[in-house]
Write a structure and sequence with these properties.
Number of domains: 2
Strand content: 25-35%
Radius of gyration: 24 Å
Structural class: alpha+beta
Bound molecules: alpha-L-arabinofuranose
Shape: elongated
CATH topology of the largest domain: Jelly Rolls
Number of strands: 34
CATH class of the largest domain: Mainly Beta
Strand order of the largest sheet: 3-2-4-5-9-20-11-12-14-15
Amino acid sequence: MIKPPWIRGVRRALLAAGATAALAAGLLTATATTSQAATQGPCDIYAAGGTPCVAAHSTTRALYGTYNGPLYQVKRASDDTTKDIGPLTAGGVADAAQQDSFCANTSCVISVIYDQSGKGNKLTQALKGYWPGPAEGGNDNLANAFEAPITVGGHKAYGVYVAPGTGYRNNNTNGIATGDQPEGMYAIFDGTHYNAGCCFDYGNAETTGNDDGNGTMEAIYFGNSKGWGSGSGPGPWIMADLENGLFSGVNRGFNAGDPTINHRFTTAIVKGGPNHWAIRGGNAQSGGLSTFYDGVRPNAPGYNPMKKQGAIILGIGGDNSNTGQGTFYEGVMTQGYPSTATEDAVQANITAAGYDSGSTSTGSLTPGSRISLKATTSPCCTTHYLRHNDTDTKVVISSITSSSPATDKADATWIVRAGLANTSCLSFESVDKPGQFLRHANYQLYLNTDSGGSSFAKDATFCPTAGNSGVGTSFQSVNFPTKYIRHYNYTAYVASNGGTNAWDNTRAWAQDTSWLTAAPWS
Ligand code: AHR
């Protein structure tokens, strides 16, 4: 096959760089910031290294320099119709404005993550596996399309926000490694969004949806699931989910060489071939990759030779265990075992892409902004802010001043998100408990982990209106429109102006439901 000149150029660079990984990183960082930055993506680099992508998934950018097809599909709640979202330009960042306008005034989920490799290995809703999905029907949820906003190269884009119960899968793939065949994979995750549940994975899994025994999977795991395996520090760790075990090195359980890694954008790599595998990782915003394990298969029965089946999973374990959480931005799987020089070049491409959390403003009711919400009821409460507790999940108000402890300040700080159930309204994510949102249940406000379902989305969506007292802003519950966020006896509720609950008391209702949007305490 005749390769385009720039692929031959990258191959020459990789060969030249083969002498040392450090040289490769330096050389290829240089190329990534010159004219080739616009014409090559990670999969061009893998192809030039002799290990082409056989799956390439991203909702944020094209992973080939010339890719101009759909990146993902969104489905809106108002009429169940779908729309494909492509890049702004060939090889470029996703056109998030298309999603914004298609999903305006309703909510959207990510219904398909297309495969850019040409192999047709797209990801769609994971169906019930050995483990049942959430209550509604047993299949996994689709990700809310607005829950992971970021920028890439200065352009707005959305990641795939995996709340527990969310999962994507393809059990009928083409070209993915099976048996003991070699493969590589990387993914970019939000290093601050994780949990100990099983299992926030991306990679190779059983085509059956069941646990088919040791060695039947090979996927990147990200989280702090100590039960299956762990590395040094408190986690999260990049580990390999090889089925019935999350491996951080050669031993089942603990391996000191696998460090806690929690960059806001974390590059995670797992690769494996006959009696050889590796874990690598780094900061997707800058710098190179480190190798956390590189050696023989685990010293536990069943993992050598491997019995990979070649399905692809995202956000779940091989048997559809779906209690993990995390955020995925892009990832690929390759045919063949990529060299470290190739991966170092891919990391240079990733850091050059310019991932950023996209929080540009503070103190405004704009998605992405950090705010604190100050009570207005006088004289009791004008130094009080809406905050979550640390001892339970209740949301309350308490006085916060510049000399308050940092934990109290963080508890009183919120990240404004597009409304989970309606994009023209808002949701509020805790700044110190990523993945946990302000929501009502039985008309009381709590901080809870997004369970991914439509009921949670409604309970966590509030529409800003002019303050009921004529001051500031009031926040109307999207599913109980007569009720607004209110403090009553220093506890937070959704309350109507008169009603059956004690907190519906008409006295001071207008003041108690009116809030000032303030600069974030944290
Ligand atoms: O290996 C850890 C998990 O164990 C797998 O993801 C799942 O299939 C099994 O429950």
